[in-house]
Amino acid sequence: MVFNLPRILIPIEAALGETRVAATPETVKKLISIGFKVSIQQGAGALAGFLDDSYFNAGADSFSDAGEDSYQNVDLVLCVNSPSEDFLSKLKPRTLLVGLLAPYGNQTLANNLEKGELSALSLELLPRISRAQAADALSSQANIAGYKAVLLGASALDRYFPMLMTAAGTVQPAKVVVLGAGVAGLQAVATAKRLGAVVYVSDIRPAVKEQVESLGGRFIEPPEVKDEPSGSAVYANQVSQAFLASQRKQLVSQLAEADVAICTAQVPGKKAPRLIDEEMLDQMRVGAVVVDLAVAQGGNCEGTRPGETILRKGVKLIGASDLPCTIPNHASSLYARNLFALISPLINDGHLVLDAEDELIKGALISKDGLIRQNQLMNSGGLN
Ligand code: NAD
Fold this sequence. Notes:
The protein has helices spanning 25-33, 52-57, 68-72, 85-90, 107-116, 137-156, 183-194, 209-214, 241-256, 278-283, 328-343, 359-364, 375-378, and strands at 2-3, 7-10, 37-41, 61-63, 76-78, 96-99, 119-122, 164-166, 169-171, 175-179, 198-202, 218-220, 260-263, 289-292, 309-312, 315-319, 347-348, 351-353, 365-368, 371-372. With 384 residues, it is α/β, with parallel strands linked by helices. The chain folds into 2 domains: 2-125 and 328-368, Rossmann fold (3-Layer(aba) Sandwich); 142-326, NAD(P)-binding Rossmann-like Domain (Rossmann fold). An 8-stranded mixed beta sheet has the order 4-3-2-5-6-7-19-20, with helices on both faces. The protein is globular, with a radius of gyration of 22 Å.
C-alpha cells in the first residue's frame, strides 16, 4: 500500500477531559526532516503546554477545516483518541489513522472505518516485542498513571508515607498494597518506595516476583488453584471466579492493615478482575485510600466510579480513569515519540508504505482501506 507525499494532520482532541496531543514541536521537526508535511489544528497542543507558534517554528502549517478540500489533502492522522464520526467522514479513502483507538468491542469505529474506506493502526494492539518498545504507548502512559496514582493516594491519606523519627516520637511508615504489577503497578511500587512506604504487591504472573523484589516491594504469592493458567510472560489470562474468590480471601488481611491500595490489575480486552469487594472494604481502616486505575474497565474495587472520589464508611475510593491527562506535557511528549517511532520506519523515498505483513504493523492494523481485519475483537460487544 503506497501513499503519495504524505501530509500528517494533528487534530484537536475532542474527547471530554482529554488534554494530550499526538505531536510536539520536537516530533514535528523530526517528522518533517524525514519527509512528511505536518498540519496542526489551531490550539491542538495548548492544554499540554505547546502553543501554535512553537509548532509553526518547528515547520508545521496551520490546518484550516473551512473547506472539505483540506481534509482531502491529509494522508495520515496522528491522534490520541479516535476522532468523531463527522471528522472521519471528511477524510479521503485510504487515509491512515494512528492512535489509541479503543478497539475492543468498538463497532462504531469499525463501521466508520469501513464507511470511509480508512486504514487504522491501534496502538493498544502493538505486539510486545523488543522492536516495538519505543512505540509502546500503553507503557509510556501506564508509567505516568502508576506514578500519579501514588501521589494521589499520598495526598488523600491522613498519614505520612515515610517513617519519621521526630522529637514527638516515631511515625511508622505507611503500608501500600499494589494490586497488579504490570507497567503501572511497578511504577507505583517504585514511587511509593521513594516516598518511604512499605509496599506489598499482588500479581498472578509469577514472572513479576523478581521485578517487584528488585524495586524493594514484597510479593504476595498468588493462591494455588489447580489448573489455573496465569498467562504469558507479558499478559495475564482472565482467571476463574473460584480463583478470584481465593485471591480476595488472601488479600483481606493485607488490605485490613493497608493505608493505601493502588489497583492496576487488568487483562487486555476483558473486564478488570474484582479484587476488593464490599466485605473487604468494611475491614479497611477509617482514613485508608483506594486508588482504582482499572475503573474504566469495570474496576478492581467495588464501588469506584470513573473520575469520582467517594467516601465510603471513612475509606476514600478514588476512580482514577484519566491520570495521564493530569500530566499532559510529559504524557504528550512521550506519546508523540511513541508515534514517531512507529511511523518513521514506514517512510521510504517520500512515500508512506504500510507493510501489512510486518509483525508490528500486522498486530496493530485494525482496518486496511476500510477492510476490517480484527472483526472478532471489534465486534465482540465490549468487555466481559
Ligand atoms: P496490564 O495493564 O494488562 O495488566 C496489569 C497487571 O495486572 C499485569 O501484570 C497482570 O498480570 C495483572 N493482573 C491481571 N489479573 C490479575 C489479578 N487477578 N490479580 C493480580 N494481578 C492481575 O499489563 P501491562 O502493564 O500493560 O503490561 C504487562 C507486562 O508486559 C509487564 O510485565 C511489562 O513489563 C510487560 N511489557 C513488555 C514489553 C515488551 O516486551 N516489549 C513492553 C511493555 C510491557
